[in-house]
Design a protein that fits this description.
- The chain has 633 residues and is α/β, with parallel strands linked by helices.
- The protein folds into three domains: 406 residues, Alpha-Beta Barrel (TIM Barrel), CATH 3.20.20; 74 residues, Fumarate Reductase Iron-sulfur Protein, Chain B, domain 2, CATH 1.10.1060; 90 residues, FAD/NAD(P)-binding domain, CATH 3.50.50.60.
- Helices cover 38% and strands 11% of the residues.
- The protein contains 22 helices and 18 strands.
- The strands form five sheets. Strands 4-7-8-9-10-13 form a six-stranded parallel β-sheet. Strands 5-6-12-11 form a four-stranded antiparallel β-sheet, with no helix packed on it. Strands 17-16-15-18 form a four-stranded parallel β-sheet, with helices on one face.
- The radius of gyration is 30 Å and the shape is elongated.
- The relative contact order is 0.08.
Length: 633
Amino acid sequence: MSDVMRVQPFEHLLASMLAELEQNQSIFGIHRSLFYAPEADAPYTTDRLFDQHLATPIGPGAGPHTQLAQNIVSAWLSGARFIELKTVQIMDELEIPRPCIDMADEGYNVEWSQELKLDQSAWEYVKAWALIHILRRALGFEDVPFGTIFNMSVGYDLAGVQSGPMTRFMDRMRDASAEIAQIRTLLREKFPRFADVEMPSQLTDNVTLSTMHGCPPDEIERIGRYLMEERGLHTFVKLNPTLLDREAVMDILHRCLGFTGIHIPDAVFAHDLQYGRAVALIRALKETAAERGLTFGVKLSNTLAMANHRDVLPGDEMYMSGRALYPITMNLFHKLAQAFAGDINVSYSAGADALNVAEILSTGALPVTAVSDILKPGGYSRFLQYLDQLAGEMRRRSVASLAELARDGLANLERAAREALEAPRYKKAYHPYALPKVESALALFDCVEAPCVHQCAVCQDVPAYAWLIARGEYDRALGVVLYRNPLPNVTGYVCTHLCQTRCTRNNYDQPVAIRALKRFAAERGAVALSPKPGRGRVAVIGSGPAGLSAAYFLALNGVDVTMYEAKDRPGGILAIAPAFRLPASVVQADVDRILGLGVKIELSHPVERPPEALLNEDEGFDVVYVGTGAQRD
């Protein structure tokens, strides 16, 4: 893969998106079933941020996900509605070290601003803006409010922010009339059905200021004033986690979380903004914003600078993100909120994920952005999980809005900060199951073996039936299950699901509910089984799980099977399971499928003779299979 980032022409992007949507029901590889369907009355919509409508309170933070138009569109398709654009600066010919991101567990990186020229970055953001508006029509979303906020991210010093190229960039973000006019001309010529799509020329009126680690506090304040007083922008200033002070940060990392391998030089804390000065800076900029009718807040938090202790990334220093940063930033948030009696706007981004997004929003933070988490498998589609979890938690708490969710914001924040220090999931040693590696040798071809398949007692192809269910092909999904499992209904209820202990998602959030998927396939799918031509007769003693399984596979291979069951109903131990765990109708559904293959069953027919007696000429069986289980005398 090339390490050179190449932008794609707008016409090419739009044409390929529309063709892929028509042919594959997907865009940029994201299937339509994973597109976020906007809801005008969703409980997490809000008008609190910049007095603008925000349809969802989440999105990608400034980083690798918000640099190219197709990345931004992918995030939007997946439910992100707050888009923090990749940070830009005057120095736009940087040589980025490779590799620059290490996301094996907690995140580390050595990259910091855009890889494109300023003009290219501006065009990527305009293209993304236009494509999103076009997609609203293509996907039938025009009747729902747009509800999307683009947020500029600029850095890193006053001279750079005030430079000609940077001021021109910000001007274009405020008024992209010239670029939008070019796009409309193209639409009229090549895509006329989208020529009249609503497409405002103002992409944004707000900004997040990102400064270098060690930037003087007076300069941070001057940049903030400039952005509000002279540019008229709602402004967030990104703060560093070192504000919590060295003793607190190292205590959290080493004692509370167990990240003992991390070393942070004293200079990192000494050169960064100090807490007392930060409070004064925030007060001053809040006053400036109030005088001009603007919103001011802080972005919590930046990454945490430290010595490079892993032999992965180049250089002596790297920056930490992800789950290890969450407890530090939540405690910094709590400290600042106490200083301002809760009267502080916070844009949150530090270890946010689907499992804590509701907790973060309950503190009053808005919006919540993520970077490290969406670098994990699932990518942008993980945002859908954020919204599902958020909606579920709001229902559980019986709240109908984000304002209600954050009604006791300070109390919620105090609890969240305290629990973050104790929660197992943020500790270095937290891995509920082993790493998802399998014992099989790595072959040259067909080398991938899913850990869940390896762990399954009958080696069911879990990825295959999960994929088919996602595509709505329930019959085929059930067919995959039945290839190795004759009791999909039963195991959909009571399987020990060891597969879930080896699910790769254990290392990210929660395992896939594999047993529930199997049950779903069994309940929704239908498969007509056709036995192969065969010969021979087999007696199966017992109609429990072993007997039913033997009868199933024998019958599929054309063998004439008769089951003998001592009780008056089939199922063996399954038949005596309590109904709340395993309904009788579920057992019967699997039994009926097996009987449908031509298997005969003799109920209330105990076999009291030695099994081999069934092999005589009178009975005519070629083989006897004994599946009587663990019988009690």
